[in-house]
Amino acid sequence: MMTLKTNEPTPNTPTVPVLIVGAGLAGLACAKTLQRHGVPFLIVEADGAVGGRVQSDVHHGFTLDRGFQAFNTAYEEARHFLDFKALNLQAFYAGAVIRHNGAFHQVGDPFRDLRQLFTGLFSSIGTLKDKLLTLKLSLYAKGLDESAIFQMPEQPTLSFLQDYGFSETYIQQFFKPFYGGVFLENTLKTSVRKFLYTFKCFAHGSVTLPQAGMHAIPQQLSQSFGSHELWLNRSVVELSPFDIQAPAPRTVTLSDGSEILANFVIFATPLAETFHLLGESLDVPQNATVNLYFSFEGRLPKGLVGDALYLNGEGTGIIQHLCFISEVASDYAPRGKHLLSVTLNNVTLKETAFETASQRDAQVRHELHAWFGDSVKNWVKEAEYVIPHALSESTLLYGENAPHIQASIHRLQAKWNILLASDALDSGSINGALRAGRLTALQLLEHLSPHTKESHA
Length: 457
What we know:
FAD/NAD(P)-binding domain, Polyamine Oxidase, Chain A, domain 2, single chain, alpha/beta, 23% strand, 2 domains
C-alpha cells in the first residue's frame, strides 16, 4: 500500500512533466499519444516487461500467453496505434467446434464463408429457429452504434438471450461455453451491454493471434520509447499529498528508493490496484481464469479443424474451451510439435473443489482422453496460469457496479488529484484499454493547451 510522502525532495530530484504508473496497454497508449504531441513523459512499471495482463512467456521453445487471449481486427481503437501487417495476424476458423453428446459439431459463420451456411443449417446444435435468430442477432449487432450499446438498459446476458427467443438447449450448448470463455463466468450474468459489444466485434472482425504471441502487441506499442521514457522493475511506493491551496509538483518515491518530481501523475494500473496503492478500497467482483498448456509431437487427432476454438457443450466437466493454438499461429510451437491451450470452467472448478492441482490435472486429462483418445497419454503439460483477477464483472460502462465505480473514481480523483487510464473506464477489453489511454492523454493535453485538438471518437 502506498503511503503519503510529506518530506521535501532533495535539490537534485529530477522532474518529469508527466508520470505514467503502469506499462499495460492503457499506459502505453497514453504515452504514445503524449509522444505524438511532443509532451515528455516517464512510464514506471513494476514488472520486467511491458504489457500488463497482455503477456507471453517462452518456455521450451513454446510461446505461452498468460491466459488465453486473442485480438479482434474489429477493434477500431487499435488502428490508432498498431501496425496490423507487422503483427502478422493469424486468424482462427470463423466459427467454432462444439463437443456435444460425445461428438464434435462444426458451426461456421456464413457471413464469412457461404459454405458454412449449409454446415450450420445441418448441424445438430440448436434448432432452425436458433440458427435464424443467430443470423438476425448478428445483423442487429452489426448495425448498432457502440455508444448506443453502452446506454442500453442493464440486463443480464442470459435473460436477454431468453427474451430474444433462443432455446435453453442452444444457450447451454453454444452461448454458455463460448461466452463463458469471453466473460470468464458461465452463468451469463454479465451485462447485455458487454455481450452486444463483443458480439458486434465478432460480427465485424476476425479473431486472430499475432504470429509471435500476444505480447507482440505491447512490444510494438513501446518500441519507440527510449530508456529515459520507460523504466521497468520499478514501482511507485510513495506519493506526496495534493495541496489545493499550494499546487506543486508531486514527489514520487520508487521501489529502488529514488525520487522524482511529477507535474502530473496518471495511474494506468488495474483500477482495483490503483485504489489499493493509494490506500483506498474498491470492491468490484473480479472473474478468474485458469489456463493450461500441453504439447505433443506427431499429427493432430484425426478429423479435427485445427485452427478452430473447441467449446464444451456437454454441460459437464471442467474444460470450458480449448484450441490447438500452434495450428492458428505456427510460431507458438517449435517445428514438429503442437501446442494445446485449455481454459477451465471456473464455476465447475469451484464446485468440484480439487484438493491439489494434480487432481485437477488428472480430471483435465480424463476429459481430453474422452475427446481425443489414447494419444492424450503422451501429451506433456508445459505450464499453467492461474489468474485470479483477469476481468472485472463491471466497468464504468456496464454492469451493476458501474454507479459505484463512478462514485469511487470521483472521490479518489478529488482527494489525490490524479488522472486514471484503465480498461475499467471503458469496455474491459484491449480496445477499451487503448481508448482509455488515448482519451486520458487528450484530457491532459487540453489542460496543457486549450488549442490542442484531436477527435475523441
